């Protein structure tokens, strides 16, 4: 494995960032994770669009798109991957210890960032195994705050997801599903959720607080899926449930809490998974 850090390709043992980096001290950073197939990242431009949106929402300096592309190419050239993941991480960079501070419209790099150090950019890649065809999920007692300042932003502040996913693993599940403060279905810790209900294919709208997933957007584009506010309890009644995500594509859900969904993947999920696989294989930049 090779890791690109602030302009240089390094071995893992030599790759480092400052212990004063705000991405480490306060989670002031954003990231993207992409699937790599035959050494090429899938939907890189869509991910870079979202990376820029997330950076802007946190008040970070907009990542240099050409630099990020070049860094991704360097890493993948050094680490050819038949199937893998590519992670791009941007933070506001090192800053003195102290209050987190607020937004500063006079600076694009964050209020407390060291102007001499500048932002941090890290790109890393690693191999991964194909995802199983199905996943078990559990609902968890914690909620997404759809009114949060960081709702729908892919930040490095991931502790909430870590706790929820640990609960899922404790119950023999692969993913945790969260509702929002209104009791509506929101998302998984690293996935969006679709349901088939009464012949309709539905997914929560972005106003639910869920992440604007890349695979979610493509699924909406390549199907007759609709966005609709859904109670969390819909998971008890849906004919089919599936997850979408950059590293899982479309993955059927075989169990929700104690409810078994026999025959998963169901016909709608199986058809969409085949459509997604075909279109993704035909175009790396859909």
Walkthrough of the structure:
A hairpin with a 2-residue loop joins β10 (about 190-195) and β11. Strands 7, 8, 9, 10, 11, 12, 13, 14 and 15 form a nine-stranded mixed β-sheet that branches. The protein has a six-stranded antiparallel β-sheet with strand order 2-1-6-5-3-4. Helices cover about 25% and strands about 30% of the residues. It has seven helices and 15 strands. With about 290 residues, it is an alpha+beta fold.
Top keywords for this entry?
286 residues, alpha+beta, six-stranded antiparallel beta sheet, 15 strands
Task: Offer a concise description of the structure.
The protein has 286 residues and is α+β, with helices and mostly antiparallel strands. The chain contains seven helices and 15 strands. The model is unreliable at 102-111 (pLDDT under 50).
Number of helices: 7
Describe the main β-sheet briefly. Answer: 9 strands, mixed
Instruction: Report strand %.
Output: 25-35%
Number of extended strands: 15
Q: Which stretches are low in confidence, meaning pLDDT under 50 for 5 or more residues running?
A: 102-111
Distance between the termini: 28 Å
Oligomer state equals single chain
| 3D shape | globular
Give the overall average pLDDT. Answer: 93
Structural class: alpha+beta
User: What is the CA-atom radius of gyration, in angstroms?
Assistant: 19 Å
* H/E series: EEHEEHHEEEHEEEEHEHEEEH
Helix content: 25-40%
